[in-house]
Please model this.
Amino acid sequence: MRLKALTLAAALALTPLAVQAQTAEVAPPKFRAIKIVLVGDSTTAVLGGWGPSFCGWHVTSFAACINLARGGRSSGNYRAEGSWALAMDEIKSGGFTDTYVLIQFGHNDQPGKPGRSTDLATEFPVNMKRYVDEVRAAGGKPILVTPLTRRSFKDGKLLDDLGPWADAVRKVAAETNTPVVDLHARSQAAVQAMGPVEAMKFAQRPPSAEVLEAATKTGTTIAASTGVPVAPGAAPAAQNNAAVEPMGQAKLSFDYTHLGVVGANYFSAIVTDELSKSVPALRRYLIQ
Model:
């Protein structure tokens, strides 16, 4: 009887060890996923850009999508203010099988934007190449994105004021062997095909009657925020992009640059399509 009691006591004493061993054996495997980080200006950012629709509707649950784009930022001041340091923390954080970084600048690198503008020949391409190099050095995979077109027209023809910046991005991509999403070319073609009136649906707010009438009658877009009727025979004022594109968060208003929900959905689908072509390894993580 005493022997049975000792045996039972020994078995009970070993029970916690057995439970621990069993728990260790059934520990789940580490979930394998990728991370996508968006870097850029307001045309990528949460309010005013294609980024939220891309993250919300075009990536699977095997991809974490983080939008670090900020309104009013250029390839220069995004770094200078510390936003790039935050992005680098995300790239270096680990835990994911791969980290892809989409980088889109150009709008605020243009002249006429104090504290933001960069020189097209000597600064902008250098900045873009430096982003590419630093992403790779941190273990990430850079992808360059050419700037989204604006939607300003003259006599029915879409104005291409961002063409030189798109060309500079393509050149850096070629020189560094970096995948490129040519959003500029695709968005230019799409908006030109629509014309000035239909393309107004992409803005955050509807156009004023004055703006709509001018575009319908002349094929020319006029300044979106004047609210002043154009005098008979007077030439309508063109949109001053440097004046209406804010340094911070994009305003909820009508303009020819920022995107509402319809625009974000439309252009995020283009980004997804181009991304699946330029980076085949990402196709399994994208929803088209």
